[in-house]
Design brief:
heterodimer, A: mainly alpha, 14 helices, B: alpha+beta, 7-stranded mixed beta sheet, 4-stranded mixed beta sheet, 18 helices
């Protein structure tokens, strides 16, 4: 097991640097530069002033040199200073925005699991029943509806008509004056719609996965063996089949990290939540290279970490993988 | 509606070099100056007057919440180029001069000024007894320090150019600041807005770009900085010691809501008091009883116009008659009706109607396809082979118009034009390209046939950079390569002349030539459409927009919505 782990981690290191190299190259290949916002079609900008800005941001140095400098700073976990006019450290910006993004994504993932796994399991144990079909229809509707549209409808109903929930942001204007309980409810009420809606769109994938995995397991010999032992159908399904069917499902969660970060852009945009998705989006639009690199690196790191956990959990339960090297 | 992002939040920025005309960027990155509303069409304005007839007593207190699609980036004006930052810092930081209600240049931190030596020297007499928000007295040394900072090559600013024309700047005493120019430069005076006033005692010896003042600004203005939660909100509070008197409204909050639909719902739910509407929202979604009772809508011409520009190096567009024909073939009123839902006016030149230098009596191009065809025929374009497309020397008349991604208003404009040109036998293709690639690969390299773009304009008529023949180089703003010796002369003379009447004559002639030559087909001037909660009184629309007198707005006692906040003296 140890050697498997060491091997996995060792392969991750070059992979990680490969990702940063490719990211670095790609974002610099995209047309435009951080000074465009200031300089494009601005009459007050002479060629000389533009040149000064270019060297101010270090954009006059060759790409490989810039990558090398980036790596050197990264070695001390420094992502540099944002190119945005606020000139703040990228690390500070990520630190401000990452928690709220992770909270929303974690809650929504939890909700997806809580709903999708029972749906998938039930569908698999009653395949092609009317209930299976309607559940399938339901999750596909969630998958197909454009989430931004659904979000606006939900806002109109719950926030404008019924006035149950706040519309945007994650804290009220008078947050500082609220009691502790008031503060907690304030936060929770701001999170309800974003979490519900992002979960709704993600139900289809996981529940289908669950259903497929469960059907697969149900065909296995040990299920037949369990049935022939005379166990009740209930016990067969929930004790033997479900546990085994869950394994591949849980591991795909590790792979869903990049998708979650990407998906956050839309929700944070609609609900005006000051999270990392929006930070990333504005960074890309203004060609804020250090910021974009910082977020991509964190994203890559989290993804690889997710993969590693998936591998480990797989290896823990499946000896074939753990001992793979020794045949 | 990205085009509107800047425009919708029009606020007069006392500072800005008022001759700026940034291109309307797609991401609300453009700096927009105030707008215009001398026009009597504002139905809401007259309603407003009736309801204000009772003249409730001004009262201190309450909070106003404004919606903004983008967060501010830096609250030191010279370091920021986005409208969100300038809107907020404009309330915190004063300049030496500002425009008054009637777009006349008046003193702000300067009490008076004197232009001498044929326009080479300007001497500002500063207000006495003004203090920075931290209590430190404001003096001429702060202005000199600001000037030195903006002209320092290490300061990453986009606004240094006007100040490089200055040969010498000096603080003669605590309340006298003097600048001497290399040569007479008429737009100079307007440049002494709030870009160049900095608290020397807080910044001296520090790197301004990394200064915490960008996050926690200290100014002399009606509002002082309280709190900035990144990407969420900026909170300002009234400055009790403001030299024009303490503002009535206690707190001014700018909330960042990137999605316009969400912002509108927030307004509807009462979470916002102030935002810029899109034409659809203005026309179709805010007409019901609820909105009529709770909000007041305003409309005034934005400081911007949209145009169809022709690459004059292209043989097709070299002939003036062809350009005139295209202008006749395009129905501007139709574009305004369809694309802007009627919320705009046809442009006749590069200035918006209503300003002192606007010339209404230039050659106009009302929709007239027959006239267009006649002109094209004169220029040799005729449908000889009967395929429905005009041709000349066996070449069909077709061209591609380019515009930037993320601006649906421009894209729709292109479609309307395409349809009109098709009817007279011109095939126009539309290509929409992401902003950076569009500018760097096509505009800067002059690799385009025609383009739909917009300029943000100001209250200073100088447009040397856009029309002068010396500005046709790579990456310069006369990218359509317009060359006209009389225009060159006028532009040069306009920069040297200080007398307003003389300048008016100069720029009137400039507009006549541009109208005759049609290097652009000037399409339309859109309107800014702010909406403000009806409990707010004291709003007086002017050509500058509505926000220029924000510190005089008030909410009468009984209508206040938020608790008073205690202000430290």
């Amino acid at each position: 097991m140890i050697s498997y782990l060491v091997r996995r981690i060792l392969t991750l290191i070059p992979l990680f640097f490969g990702i940063t190299l490719i990211s670095f190259a790609v974002i610099h290949l995209a047309p435009g530069s951080p000074i465009d916002v200031l300089a494009d079609l601005n009459p007050k900008m002479t060629a000389e002033a533009k040149q000064r800005l270019i060297s101010y941001y270090g954009l006059d140095k060759p790409l490989h040199e810039r990558y090398y400098q980036w790596l050197r700073r990264f070695a001390s976990l420094d992502f540099g200073v944002s190119f945005s006019p606020d000139r703040r450290p990228v690390m500070d910006k990520i630190r401000e925005t990452l928690p709220i993004t992770i909270v929303i994504n974690a809650l929504s993932l939890l909700l997806i699991m809580l709903v999708a796994i029972p749906i998938g399991a039930y569908s698999a144990s009653h395949p092609y029943s009317a209930f299976d079909k309607s559940l399938t229809l339901f999750v596909y509707i969630g998958f197909a509806i454009p989430t931004f549209w659904l979000a606006l409808l939900a806002l109109i109903l719950f926030s404008v008509q019924l006035e149950w929930l706040p519309i945007s942001g994650f804290r009220s204007l008078d947050y500082a004056r609220l009691s502790l309980a008031g503060k907690i409810w304030d936060m929770v009420s701001h999170l309800i719609l974003p979490v519900l809606l992002s979960a709704f769109g993600g139900l289809a994938g996981l529940s289908r996965y669950m259903r497929g995995s469960m059907l697969e397991v149900m065909r296995q010999d040990y299920i037949t063996a369990a049935r022939s032992k005379g166990l009740s159908e209930r016990e067969v399904i929930y004790k033997h089949a479900l546990r085994n069917a869950l394994l591949p499902v849980v591991t795909i969660l590790g792979l869903s990290v990049p998708g979650l970060i990407g998906g956050s852009v839309i929700f944070e945009q609609i609900f005006a939540i000051p999270g990392m998705g929006r930070l990333f989006y504005t960074g890309v639009m203004s060609r804020d290279y250090p910021l974009v690199m910082g977020i991509l690196t964190i994203g890559a790191f989290l993804t690889l970490l997710g993969n590693l956990f998936a591998d480990i959990s797989y290896a823990l339960v499946d000896p074939r993988i753990r001992k793979g090297g020794k045949g | 509606m990205a085009d509107r992002d800047g425009d919708s939040r029009q606020r007069f920025l006392p500072k800005h070099n008022l001759s700026l005309f940034f291109l309307c960027l797609s991401l609300s990155l453009s700096v927009s100056l105030g707008g215009c509303s001398e026009d009597k069409r504002t139905e809401t304005k007259s309603q407003r007057d009736e309801s204000a007839a009772s003249h409730p007593q001004p009262a201190y207190g309450d909070t106003l919440v404004e919606g903004s699609i983008g967060d501010a980036t830096n609250l030191i004006p010279m370091l920021a180029s986005d409208s969100a930052s300038h809107n907020i810092s404009g309330l915190i930081i004063n300049g030496l001069v500002k425009y008054d209600k009637d777009v006349k240049l008046v003193g702000d931190l300067a009490e008076s000024w004197e232009v001498s030596q044929g326009g080479l020297q300007i001497t500002f007499k500063l207000r006495r007894g003004v203090t920075w928000h931290d209590g430190h007295p404001f003096t001429a040394r702060d202005v000199l320090f600001g000037f030195q900072t903006i002209t320092n090559p290490n300061t990453p600013t986009a606004y240094a150019e006007d100040f490089r024309q200055v040969k010498k700047a000096a603080a003669l005493d605590d309340y006298t600041f003097q600048v001497v120019y290399e040569k007479p430069f008429a737009p100079a005076l307007t440049s002494w807005g709030n870009l160049v006033v900095l608290p020397k005692h807080l910044l001296e010896g520090k790197d301004i770009a990394k200064s915490e003042l960008g996050r926690k600004p200290v100014g002399t203005g009606p509002y002082r900085f309280r709190e900035w939660i990144s990407r969420d909100r900026v909170i300002l509070e009234a400055n009790p010691n403001y030299f024009e008197g303490r503002p009535y409204i206690d707190r001014y909050v700018t909330r960042v809501i990137p999605d316009l639909a969400t912002m509108f719902l927030e307004l509807k739910a009462g979470g916002l008091d102030l935002m810029g509407l899109t034409p659809i929202q203005y026309k179709r979604q805010t007409g019901d009883r609820f909105f009529q009772q709770s909000y007041h809508k305003y409309r005034y011409l934005a400081n911007a116009y949209t145009y169809l520009g022709y690459n004059l190096l292209d043989p097709k567009f070299k002939d003036k008659r062809v350009r005139q024909a295209l202008s006749y073939a395009i129905d501007k009123e139709e574009i305004i009706k369809v694309v802007l839902l009627g919320l705009g006016v046809a442009a006749t030149g590069p200035y918006k109607p209503g300003l002192w230098f606007y010339n209404p009596d230039v050659k106009k191009y009302p929709f007239n396809p027959a006239r267009a065809l006649a002109l094209l025929k004169e220029a040799g374009w005729e449908d000889r082979n009967g395929d429905g497309i005009l041709d000349k020397d066996q070449e069909p008349f077709e061209f591609t118009v380019m515009t930037n991604e993320g601006n649906p208003v421009r894209q729709r404009t292109a479609v309307v034009i395409q349809e009109r040109l098709k009817k007279i036998g011109i095939r126009m293709k539309i290509r929409v390209i992401e902003w950076s690639a569009f500018i760097n690969e096509f505009i800067d390299k002059k690799d385009f046939e025609a383009t739909i773009l917009g300029w943000t304009t100001g209250f200073e008529p100088d447009q040397y950079d856009i029309w002068h023949s010396s500005k046709t180089g790579k990456k310069e703003l006369n990218f359509i390569s317009f060359k006209n010796s009389e225009v060159d002369e006028l532009l040069e003379k306009g920069r040297r002349t200080f007398d307003q009447e003389e300048r008016k004559a100069i720029y009137s002639r400039l507009q006549e030539i541009l109208a005759e030559e049609q290097p652009y087909t000037f399409l339309y001037v859109p309107e800014a459409l702010p909406i403000v909660h009806s409990r707010v009184y004291g709003i007086e629309p002017s050509p500058l927009g509505i926000s220029y007198n924000l510190h005089r707005w008030y909410v009468p006692q009984g209508l206040q919505r938020y608790d008073r906040t205690e202000l430290a003296p």
